[in-house]
Write a structure and sequence with these properties.
Distance between the termini: 35 Å
Radius of gyration: 16 Å
CATH superfamily: Glycerol-3-phosphate (1)-acyltransferase
Number of domains: 1
Order of helices and strands: HEEHEHEHEHEHEH
CATH architecture: 3-Layer(aba) Sandwich
Number of strands: 7
Number of helices: 7
Largest sheet: 7 strands, mixed
CATH class: Alpha Beta
Protein backbone atom coordinates (compact mmCIF):
# COMPACT_ATOMS: atom_id res chain seq x y z
CA UNK A 1 0.00 0.00 0.00
CA UNK A 2 2.77 2.47 0.94
CA UNK A 3 4.64 1.51 -2.23
CA UNK A 4 1.68 2.40 -4.49
CA UNK A 5 1.02 5.67 -2.63
CA UNK A 6 4.65 6.76 -3.12
CA UNK A 7 4.71 5.49 -6.72
CA UNK A 8 1.54 7.36 -7.69
CA UNK A 9 2.66 10.53 -5.90
CA UNK A 10 5.92 10.44 -7.87
CA UNK A 11 4.02 9.93 -11.13
CA UNK A 12 1.90 13.01 -10.38
CA UNK A 13 4.81 15.33 -9.54
CA UNK A 14 7.28 14.01 -12.14
CA UNK A 15 6.06 16.21 -15.06
CA UNK A 16 6.84 19.34 -13.00
CA UNK A 17 10.47 18.31 -12.63
CA UNK A 18 11.48 16.75 -15.93
CA UNK A 19 10.09 15.68 -19.32
CA UNK A 20 10.49 11.91 -19.70
CA UNK A 21 10.91 9.70 -22.77
CA UNK A 22 10.77 5.92 -22.36
CA UNK A 23 12.02 3.46 -24.96
CA UNK A 24 11.90 -0.33 -25.06
CA UNK A 25 9.19 -0.88 -22.44
CA UNK A 26 7.97 -3.76 -24.62
CA UNK A 27 11.18 -5.60 -23.63
CA UNK A 28 10.15 -5.74 -19.96
CA UNK A 29 8.32 -8.90 -18.80
CA UNK A 30 4.75 -8.24 -17.71
CA UNK A 31 4.83 -10.93 -15.03
CA UNK A 32 7.23 -13.00 -12.98
CA UNK A 33 10.51 -12.09 -11.33
CA UNK A 34 13.48 -10.62 -13.19
CA UNK A 35 16.35 -8.19 -12.61
CA UNK A 36 16.55 -4.57 -13.77
CA UNK A 37 20.27 -3.70 -14.07
CA UNK A 38 20.86 0.02 -14.61
CA UNK A 39 23.56 2.64 -14.77
CA UNK A 40 23.43 5.12 -11.89
CA UNK A 41 23.89 8.88 -12.26
CA UNK A 42 21.60 10.47 -9.67
CA UNK A 43 19.57 9.86 -6.52
CA UNK A 44 16.43 10.02 -8.63
CA UNK A 45 17.33 6.90 -10.66
CA UNK A 46 15.63 4.32 -8.38
CA UNK A 47 12.27 6.15 -8.14
CA UNK A 48 12.48 6.87 -11.88
CA UNK A 49 12.54 3.16 -12.72
CA UNK A 50 9.63 2.64 -10.30
CA UNK A 51 7.46 5.19 -12.12
CA UNK A 52 8.28 3.69 -15.52
CA UNK A 53 6.91 0.27 -14.56
CA UNK A 54 3.49 -0.47 -13.10
CA UNK A 55 4.32 -3.43 -10.81
CA UNK A 56 5.89 -3.10 -7.36
CA UNK A 57 9.65 -3.49 -7.46
CA UNK A 58 12.28 -4.40 -4.89
CA UNK A 59 15.54 -2.47 -4.65
CA UNK A 60 19.09 -2.89 -3.44
CA UNK A 61 20.04 0.32 -1.58
CA UNK A 62 23.23 1.30 0.17
CA UNK A 63 22.97 0.89 3.93
CA UNK A 64 24.05 4.49 4.65
CA UNK A 65 20.72 5.73 3.23
CA UNK A 66 18.89 4.23 6.21
CA UNK A 67 18.70 7.40 8.30
CA UNK A 68 15.82 9.57 9.46
CA UNK A 69 12.58 9.11 7.53
CA UNK A 70 14.29 6.88 4.95
CA UNK A 71 15.06 4.32 7.67
CA UNK A 72 11.27 3.95 8.07
CA UNK A 73 10.27 4.37 4.41
CA UNK A 74 12.80 2.20 2.53
CA UNK A 75 11.64 -1.14 4.00
CA UNK A 76 8.08 -0.26 2.92
CA UNK A 77 9.45 0.27 -0.60
CA UNK A 78 10.96 -3.24 -0.67
CA UNK A 79 14.52 -1.93 -0.37
CA UNK A 80 17.30 -4.21 0.87
CA UNK A 81 20.22 -2.44 2.59
CA UNK A 82 23.63 -3.42 1.28
CA UNK A 83 27.07 -2.60 2.68
CA UNK A 84 29.10 -1.51 -0.34
CA UNK A 85 32.49 -1.73 1.34
CA UNK A 86 32.34 -5.52 1.70
CA UNK A 87 30.76 -8.61 0.16
CA UNK A 88 27.35 -8.35 1.82
CA UNK A 89 26.12 -11.95 1.68
CA UNK A 90 22.98 -11.24 3.72
CA UNK A 91 21.88 -8.54 1.24
CA UNK A 92 22.41 -10.92 -1.69
CA UNK A 93 20.37 -13.61 0.10
CA UNK A 94 17.53 -11.17 0.84
CA UNK A 95 17.56 -10.01 -2.80
CA UNK A 96 17.29 -13.63 -3.96
CA UNK A 97 14.38 -14.11 -1.53
CA UNK A 98 12.61 -11.08 -3.04
CA UNK A 99 13.05 -12.60 -6.48
CA UNK A 100 11.59 -15.90 -5.23
CA UNK A 101 8.58 -13.95 -3.96
CA UNK A 102 8.05 -12.74 -7.54
CA UNK A 103 9.36 -9.19 -7.20
CA UNK A 104 11.35 -7.69 -10.05
CA UNK A 105 14.52 -6.34 -8.42
CA UNK A 106 16.40 -3.15 -9.34
CA UNK A 107 20.20 -3.33 -9.06
CA UNK A 108 22.83 -0.69 -9.85
CA UNK A 109 26.02 -2.64 -10.66
CA UNK A 110 28.21 0.44 -10.21
CA UNK A 111 27.18 0.53 -6.54
CA UNK A 112 27.18 4.33 -6.48
CA UNK A 113 26.41 7.31 -8.70
CA UNK A 114 28.95 7.50 -11.51
CA UNK A 115 29.13 10.13 -14.22
CA UNK A 116 32.79 9.97 -15.25
CA UNK A 117 33.47 6.66 -17.08
CA UNK A 118 37.13 6.82 -15.96
CA UNK A 119 36.00 6.55 -12.32
CA UNK A 120 33.53 3.73 -12.92
CA UNK A 121 33.93 0.65 -10.73
CA UNK A 122 31.66 -2.30 -11.31
CA UNK A 123 30.69 -4.67 -8.51
CA UNK A 124 30.01 -8.33 -9.31
CA UNK A 125 26.84 -8.54 -7.18
CA UNK A 126 24.52 -8.27 -10.18
CA UNK A 127 26.36 -11.16 -11.87
CA UNK A 128 26.02 -13.26 -8.73
CA UNK A 129 22.29 -12.50 -8.43
CA UNK A 130 21.68 -13.24 -12.14
CA UNK A 131 23.60 -16.53 -12.05
CA UNK A 132 22.27 -17.78 -8.70
CA UNK A 133 18.65 -16.89 -9.49
CA UNK A 134 18.74 -18.08 -13.10
CA UNK A 135 16.33 -15.23 -13.89
CA UNK A 136 16.40 -12.86 -16.87
CA UNK A 137 18.12 -9.48 -16.70
CA UNK A 138 16.65 -6.36 -18.29
CA UNK A 139 19.45 -3.82 -18.95
CA UNK A 140 18.45 -0.18 -18.42
CA UNK A 141 20.21 2.98 -19.51
CA UNK A 142 19.19 6.25 -17.85
CA UNK A 143 20.28 9.52 -19.43
CA UNK A 144 19.82 13.02 -18.06
CA UNK A 145 19.15 12.49 -14.35
CA UNK A 146 22.60 13.89 -13.54
CA UNK A 147 21.41 17.13 -15.17
CA UNK A 148 18.15 17.13 -13.18
CA UNK A 149 19.80 16.43 -9.81
CA UNK A 150 23.60 16.33 -10.03
CA UNK A 151 25.72 15.16 -7.08
CA UNK A 152 25.79 17.90 -4.46
CA UNK A 153 22.70 19.73 -5.79
CA UNK A 154 19.97 20.64 -3.31
CA UNK A 155 17.24 21.42 -5.82
CA UNK A 156 16.33 19.73 -9.12
CA UNK A 157 16.55 21.51 -12.46
CA UNK A 158 14.06 20.95 -15.25
CA UNK A 159 15.98 18.90 -17.82
CA UNK A 160 14.90 16.06 -20.16
CA UNK A 161 15.40 12.44 -19.09
CA UNK A 162 15.51 9.32 -21.26
CA UNK A 163 15.07 5.77 -19.97
CA UNK A 164 15.85 2.90 -22.35
CA UNK A 165 15.00 -0.71 -21.54
CA UNK A 166 17.04 -3.25 -23.49
CA UNK A 167 16.26 -6.78 -24.56
CA UNK A 168 16.31 -9.53 -21.98
CA UNK A 169 19.62 -11.20 -21.19
CA UNK A 170 19.78 -14.78 -19.88
CA UNK A 171 22.64 -16.56 -18.14
CA UNK A 172 23.49 -20.11 -17.07
CA UNK A 173 24.08 -21.05 -13.45
CA UNK A 174 27.62 -22.18 -14.28
CA UNK A 175 28.80 -18.81 -15.62
CA UNK A 176 31.42 -16.66 -13.90
CA UNK A 177 29.96 -13.76 -11.88
CA UNK A 178 32.51 -11.19 -13.09
CA UNK A 179 32.10 -12.17 -16.74
CA UNK A 180 28.31 -11.92 -16.46
CA UNK A 181 28.56 -8.55 -14.69
CA UNK A 182 30.73 -7.10 -17.46
CA UNK A 183 28.42 -8.48 -20.16
CA UNK A 184 25.50 -6.76 -18.42
CA UNK A 185 27.39 -3.47 -18.12
CA UNK A 186 28.43 -3.58 -21.77
CA UNK A 187 24.80 -4.07 -22.76
CA UNK A 188 23.61 -1.24 -20.49
CA UNK A 189 25.99 1.26 -22.09
CA UNK A 190 25.19 0.06 -25.58
CA UNK A 191 21.66 1.42 -25.02
CA UNK A 192 22.72 5.06 -24.76
CA UNK A 193 20.66 7.23 -27.11
Amino acid sequence: MVYFIVQNFLKIIRPFFFPLKIYGLENVPREGAFIFASNHRSYIDPPLIAICYYRPLAFVARSTLYKGILAWLLPWLNAVPIKRESADVSAIKQTLRNLKKGFPVVVFPEGTRTIDPAKRKVLSGVGMIAVKSGLPVVPVFIKGTDDVLPPGAKFPKRRPVIVTFGQIMSFHRSQDYDVVTHQIMDKIFSLEK
